[in-house]
Amino acid sequence: MNLPRINNKNLQKEIHVWVVDLDQCNLSCVEAIKELPEAEAKKAGRFHSKIHRDRYVKGRFMLRSVLGMYLGSDFYDQEFYISRYGKPALQDSYKDNSIHFNISNSENICVCAFGQYSEIGIDIEKIHDLPDMDRIIARFFSEEEKHFLGLPLSDRKQTFFKYWARKEALLKAMGVGMSYPLDKIDIAGNENSPQLVIKIEGSDISNQWTILDMDIFTGFASALALQDEHRDLAGRVRFFHPADECMTSFKEKNNNIFLCGAEI
């Protein structure tokens, strides 16, 4: 794999997804947390488990590292604008850059999506045994989505997390979080199509969003949602991960440790 220096102008015509195994990221969290804004540092301090605290710090540090690369400035301690439902965005001073982003992590895997022009949402879910799966399906899935209940257990589990990732990615792109009634959203779509058109009961925004399934890591389900007017970008998604040799030491002054990345 080559180690390209990413051309920021590509965001005008592409979606970039950065992927990192947080447990393999050689970053000093003791030092990194000092670089984060106060609100994020305090949130990190509320984790009781060290592994969960370290994963949170590493994920936020990666997000800010890559944002700083795209913006051409140090972005580690800058505050985000936080929407009513908790979606982070750039403050007014950065809006001319029109960079939209979203972050998700499940266990040790963190994904960050970046683009211009379109609001985006991303979600990743580790596929695992879920004793309450049928109860969750009954409460949060639409009637159209429940067709997979007749599948064998292993297939049912795979489909459950695929659909859940689609739902969360969509709600994050919409900026409404989990406040929206999930059973009113039908993301079953055409399983033979990589770009799914969503039905939202009682809403006129059903045709305003497109969802793309992503096979990022074995054992995980992931999805990306973007505005339908920019659905052509769904066919131009590039994946990157921070270069290993750039992760062995903490950033030096004016040097972003995630500046280089390996394209997957």
Describe this structure in a few short sentences.
By secondary structure, the chain is an alpha+beta fold.
Molecular structure report:
This protein is α+β, with helices and mostly antiparallel strands. The protein has a single domain, classed as 4'-phosphopantetheinyl transferase domain (Ribosomal Protein L22, Chain A, Alpha-Beta Complex), CATH 3.90.470. Helix content is 25%, strand content 24%. The protein has five helices and 13 strands. The strands form four sheets. It has a five-stranded mixed beta sheet with strand order 4-5-1-12-13, with helices on one face. A hairpin with a 5-residue loop joins β10 and β11. α2 packs antiparallel against α3. The longest helix is centred in the N-terminal third of the chain and has 22 residues. The radius of gyration is 18 Å and the shape is globular. The N and C termini lie close together (7 Å).
| CATH superfamily annotation | 4'-phosphopantetheinyl transferase domain
Classified by CATH, the class is Alpha Beta
In what order do the strands lie side by side in the largest sheet? 4-5-1-12-13
How is the quaternary structure best described?
single chain
Total separate domains: 1
Calculate the terminal CA-CA distance, rounded to whole Å.
7 Å
* Radius of gyration, whole Å: 18 Å
The helicity comes to: 25-40%
Task: Give the mean pLDDT.
Answer: 80
Overall structural class, as computed from helix and strand content, comes to: alpha+beta
Which fold does the CATH topology refer to? Ribosomal Protein L22, Chain A
Low-confidence stretches: 244-261
Beta-strand percent range: 15-25%
